[in-house]
Specification:
By secondary structure, the protein is mainly alpha-helical. The protein contains 22 helices and five strands.
Length: 666
C-alpha cells in the first residue's frame, strides 16, 4: 500500500510538473489570436520552416550517401543526410515542439526514437538530441528567470552531480558503440523500452483513474520523505522557495548532487534532458515546488546537455549537425504554435496526451528490438519478420504523434476563427506596445533567414555549408573508429594458427583481385565453383590486412602495396573483408570464441571503418578542433538569434511572461 501510494504520488508530481511547464509555454500565446498583426507575426516566425522545405529539393546530390559500404547497418560508417531525412528532422522537431507547447513535456523522448526510425545510429541520435536540447533550453531559462522560477544554488549543485553522471553515461555509451554499433542501438532501444514502459504504464493508469475522480487538488506540496531529507543536519545547505513558503525551505547539498548523478547518467544514455526524472526527484524526493522545479530544471539542462553533447559526443563525431539544424527550426516553430492552442490545459488532456506520446515511443523502440537482437545473434528471426515488426512500430509511432500534431493544428485554426468572430469592432489588440522592440525582432528574424539561405546555397564544389559541417563531424568519427593499435597487438598472438577457408567473391573480377591481394601472405587458388581457397597463417593474414586498411585509412587515393599491383587500396580492403568476415562466421559455427572475436575485430573495427570512411578526409587534429568550436558556437548563436527574434517580436506586441502573482502549489 505504501509503495503503491509513493508510485502514484511520483506519477502525480510528473503530471503536475508537465502542467506547470505547459502553463508558462501557453502564457505567451494567450493574446495573439485576437489580433491580425499577431497572427501575421506567427506566420513570420514560421517562415524559415517553409523556406527549408522550398529549397530542400535543390540541394546537391552530395547530401546522399552514394559511397558503397561494408558491414551493412551494423557497421561503423559516416553520417550522410538526404532530402528525406532532413525534411523528416524538421517534421520531427515541429511535432516535438507542438507537444512541448501543449502538454509541457520536453519532447526529447520523441526525438531520439524518431531519429533512429529514420536510420540515424542510436549514439548519433542521442548526441544530436542533446545538442539540440541544450541550445533550445537557453531561451526557456531566460523566460523562467523573468518569472522568478530559477534557483541558481539548486541548479549549481545539481550540475555538479550531473556532470559526473554524464561522464559515466557517455563513456559507457561510447564504449558499447565502439565494441558493436548494433549492440549500442539495442542497448539504447532497451533503455527506452524499460523507462518509457514504466512511465507509460503509470501514465495510462493515472489517466484512467482521473476520469472517475476529482483531481482538482493536485499533488501534495511536500512529502514526508522530503521533510526527513530537509531535516538532516548536514552542511553546506541550499535555501529555496522563499517566495512560496514563509521563510523558505532548505536542504543539504548531498541529496541534490546524488539526484544530478542519476539524471545525468540516464540522460546521457537516452539523449534527453532528464526532466521526467528531475521532476519527481525534486518535488517528491527533495520537496521543491513545481514552479521552482520547472525553471531550475531547464537551467540545469543547459549545462548538463551542453557538457554531454559537446564533450561526450560532438568531439567524437557523434552529432548530426544538419539534422540538429532541422530539428532546431521545426521545434522552435512548433513550440510557438503549440502554445497558442488553448489558454487553459485540462488535467485530463495532459494525462491523455502525455500517456499517448510516451506509449508511442515505447512501441517504436519495442518493435525495433527484434531486428537489433537478430543482428547481434541473440535471437534467430527471419529478416522479413523483423522488417515487418520494425515497420509496424514506426508506423504506429508516427501515426500517434502525427494525429496528435494534427489535432493541435485543428484546434489552433478553429480557435483563430472563433476569436476573430468574437472580436469587438473597436478591439485594440493589434496596438503596438513597443515599436522599437518589434523592429528589432523583425531585423533579427531577417538575419536568421539570410543565414539560412547562405547555409543552403551550393558552393563552387557543389556542397553547401551544412554538408561541410557534417563532413567535419564525420572526420571526428573516423578518428574515433581507429582500432589499428589494438588489432596489431592482438595479431601477434595468432601467428602460427592455421587457416583453410573457401571465400566467395562478388564476381570473376573480384576473384582475380583477391588472388592478387592474398598472394605473398598465404596460398590461394581458384576453385571449380568460382570461389577462392585461402590457406595460410591467421596472424600473417591479419597483419597484411591491417597494413592495407591503414593505408586506405590515411589516403583513399593510393594504390595497394607492390605485392598486389593493379589493385586499389579500397579493392584490397574489400577483398580482405570477405576473407575475415568468412573466417568470423566459420569460427562462430565451430564454437571457437577466441578466434571469432579476433577475426570480428579485424573485419568490423579495422576493415569496415577504413573502407566506409574512405571518402572522409581527416584534418589536422588542432585545426579540426578549431573548426568544431566554431560550428558549436555558431549553432548556439543561431539558436539564440531565432529565440531573441521571437522574444522581441512578442514583446513588441505586448506579449510576454511577467513576474508576479501568487504561486500556488496545486
Amino acid at each position: 500500500m505504501g509503495r503503491g501510494m509513493r508510485l502514484r504520488e511520483t506519477a502525480a508530481q510528473m503530471r503536475a510538473s508537465s502542467a506547470a511547464l505547459a502553463r508558462w509555454e501557453i502564457e505567451a500565446g494567450r493574446r495573439i489570436l485576437s489580433s491580425r498583426r499577431r497572427l501575421l507575426l506567427l506566420c513570420a516566425v514560421s517562415l524559415p520552416a517553409f523556406l527549408f522545405v522550398a529549397t530542400s529539393s535543390a540541394w546537391p546530390e552530395s547530401l546522399t550517401a552514394g559511397v558503397a559500404t561494408l558491414g551493412g547497418a551494423k557497421a561503423l560508417m559516416p553520417a550522410h543526410v538526404d532530402t528525406g531525412m532532413f525534411l523528416g528532422s524538421i517534421l520531427v522537431g515541429l511535432i516535438a515542439g507542438l507537444i512541448t507547447g501543449v502538454i509541457g513535456a520536453g519532447g526529447g523522448y520523441i526525438l531520439t526514437p524518431a531519429l533512429m526510425s529514420f536510420g540515424v545510429r542510436g549514439i548519433m541520435a542521442v548526441g544530436t538530441d542533446q545538442f539540440h536540447l541544450f541550445a533550445k533550453a537557453i531561451m526557456g531559462t531566460a523566460i523562467h528567470r523573468k518569472l522568478g522560477n530559477v534557483n541558481w544554488r539548486l541548479a549549481v549543485w545539481f550540475v555538479v552531480g550531473s556532470f559526473a553522471g554524464v561522464t559515466a553515461g557517455g563513456s559507457v555509451n561510447r564504449a558499447i558503440f565502439q565494441y558493436s554499433p548494433a549492440l549500442s542501438d539495442a542497448v539504447i532501444s532497451l533503455v527506452y523500452v524499460v523507462v518509457l514502459g514504466i512511465l507509460g504504464f503509470y501514465a495510462v493508469a493515472d489517466w484512467l483513474r482521473a476520469r472517475h475522480s476529482d483531481d482538482a487538488a493536485g499533488a501534495a506540496a511536500t512529502t514526508r520523505f522530503a521533510l526527513r531529507l530537509q531535516r538532516l543536519p548536514l552542511r553546506p545547505r541550499i535555501r529555496f522557495d522563499e517566495d512560496i513558503v514563509e521563510g523558505g525551505r532548505s536542504i543539504a547539498v548531498y541529496p541534490v548532487v546524488l539526484c544530478g548523478l542519476v539524471v545525468g547518467f540516464v540522460a546521457s544514455i537516452m539523449g534527453v534532458g532528464g526532466g521526467f526524472l528531475t521532476f519527481p526527484m525534486f518535488v517528491y524526493g527533495l520537496g521543491v515546488s513545481t514552479f521552482t522545479t520547472v525553471g531550475t530544471d531547464i537551467l540545469q539542462i543547459i549545462f548538463t546537455t551542453a557538457y554531454s553533447s559537446i564533450f561526450q559526443y560532438a568531439v567524437y563525431g557523434f552529432v548530426f549537425y544538419s539534422v540538429a539544424i532541422g530539428m532546431l527550426l521545426g521545434s522552435l516553430t512548433g513550440v510557438q504554435i503549440g502554445a497558442l492552442v488553448t489558454t487553459r490545459v485540462k488535467g485530463s488532456q495532459i494525462r491523455a496526451f502525455f500517456a499517448l506520446t510516451i506509449l508511442a515511443g515505447f512501441v517504436n523502440r519495442l518493435c525495433a528490438l527484434p531486428k537489433r537482437l537478430d543482428d547481434l545473434g541473440y535471437v534467430s528471426v527471419p529478416d522479413a519478420a523483423t522488417d515487418v515488426i520494425e515497420t509496424a512500430g514506426t508506423v504506429v509511432f508516427f501515426v500517434i504523434i502525427g494525429v496528435f500534431a494534427l489535432w493541435i493544428l485543428t484546434v489552433f485554426f478553429r480557435r483563430v476563427v472563433r476569436e476573430r468572430r468574437a472580436e469587438p469592432a473597436d478591439a485594440s489588440g493589434g496596438r503596438l506596445i513597443a515599436p522599437r522592440k518589434l523592429a528589432l525582432g523583425l531585423g533579427l528574424l531577417a538575419a536568421f533567414v539570410v543565414l539560412l539561405v547562405l547555409m543552403l546555397a551550393p558552393l563552387s564544389h557543389g556542397e553547401n555549408l551544412l554538408v561541410m559541417a557534417d563532413e567535419l563531424f564525420n572526420a571526428r568519427a573516423k578518428l574515433s573508429a581507429n582500432a589499428f593499435s589494438r588489432a596489431r597487438s592482438e595479431a601477434t598472438a595468432w601467428l602460427g594458427t592455421g587457416v583453410d577457408l573457401d571465400v566467395t567473391p562478388r564476381d570473376a573480377a573480384g576473384a582475380e583481385r583477391m588472388l592478387r591481394v592474398v598472394a605473398g601472405h598465404a596460398e590461394s587458388r581458384p576453385t571449380a565453383d568460382g570461389r577462392v581457397r585461402v590457406t595460410g597463417d591467421l596472424g600473417r593474414l591479419a597483419e597484411a590486412a591491417i597494413a592495407d586498411a591503414a593505408m586506405l585509412y590515411r589516403d583513399p587515393d593510393v594504390r595497394a602495396d607492390a605485392g598486389h599491383p593493379g589493385v586499389g587500396a579500397a579493392q584490397a580492403v574489400h577483398s580482405w573483408w570477405l576473407v575475415f568476415d568468412g573466417l568470423s562466421r566459420r569460427y562462430v559455427q565451430e564454437g571457437r570464441a577466441a578466434e571469432a572475436a579476433f577475426t570480428r575485430l579485424v573485419s568490423t573495427k579495422v576493415l569496415e571503418p577504413s573502407y566506409n570512411f574512405r571518402a572522409v578526409t581527416v584534418e589536422d587534429p588542432d585545426e579540426s578542433t578549431i573548426h568544431l568550436v566554431v560550428l558549436l558556437a555558431f549553432y548556439i548563436a543561431y539558436t539564440i538569434l531565432f529565440g531573441l527574434a521571437i522574444m522581441y517580436l512578442f514583446e513588441g506586441l505586448g506579449i510576454g511572461a511577467r513576474r508576479g502573482g501568487e504561486k500556488l502549489e496545486r
